[in-house]
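Protocol step 4 of 6.
Sequence for Pentatricopeptide repeat-containing protein (Stylosanthes scabra) entered exactly as in the expression construct, tag removed. Do not edit the line below.
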Amino acid sequence: MDDACSVMNDILKSGLKPNVFTYTLLIEGFFKKGDSNRAFGMFDQMVAANIAPSDFTFNAVISGLCKVGRVSETKDMLNNFLKQGFIPSSVTYNSIIDGFVKQGAVDLAQSTYREMCESGISPNVITCTSLINGLCRSRKIDLALRMYNVMKIMGLEMDIAAYSALIDGFCKVQDMEGACKFFSELLEVGLVPNSVLYNSMISGFVNVNNMEAALSFHKKMIDNNVPCDLQTYTTLINGLLKEGKLNFASDLYSEMLSKGIIPDTFLYNVLVNGLCNQGQIEKGLKILKEMDGNNITPTVLIYNTLIAGHFREGNLQEAFRLHDEMLDKGLVPDDTTYDILVNGKLNISHAHARA
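Step 5 output, structure tokens:
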């Protein structure tokens, strides 16, 4: 943006006059950087230079406010722009609806949608997808299905993003029958599922303890050359460890590493927690050493899990050694750590849930 502004200054110095397009690009740029003050400063500079904002400019401001999390201000701004002759379009309303959805204010997104329809502006695929996404996140699956039916009535074709939102919603409420129905439908209409969609299905099946179905979707990913990512492997490994299938989990972990996918702290948490729950404390310690090798600082949760595991095994010396190692690494033990050290207990599942 500094470079863009210096070009703008060169334009002014050379006696040329920037036009509405020049200013609008700069306004958009500042909003993208999260600098709404300079974006509005540029808007005021444009108006002061007697350059009338275009609909493109007005939309850039509305969209920009939504990007920087100031969606609540868009209503007054829109009313102000209407007085200046601005004619809103689906682009305008889509920005506001999406902004409210991202803030979790799905009721306000719905009221904006109604206002849009009452203004005679037809919703498009982007509008409906945003709403389906917001409604599914809020567990309002019935309303999301109603929006799906609105799309059908209007002749709007569901795209992969719309199906992903709907399927993820069904997975989150553990309605895997509904999720499978829409997964089959998207295949029938010729759409190709991506990693995000497969991850939703895998996560959904893991959450209902159906590892067989989860692993079958993993196989489909490989068969269809859809890249498995860190989320795919973390979800599957977590599910397998909970069922005590350590060998399968280990094979998947090796497969993941062979693809050059680097584990993150969350996956290491899953591994240590799963191994310790199965009494595999030594393997859990190996994971701790692996983290050191990858220059990843273990979390307090990981140490708590290992300390608790050693307490269960009656190996108090190793438990206190791990406590000292925590301190050496600059980690601050929490209440759970001291509860283990004093009372020798830890509810692993609760600690994991809190993390």
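Step 6, annotate. DSSP finds 21 helices and no strands in the chain.
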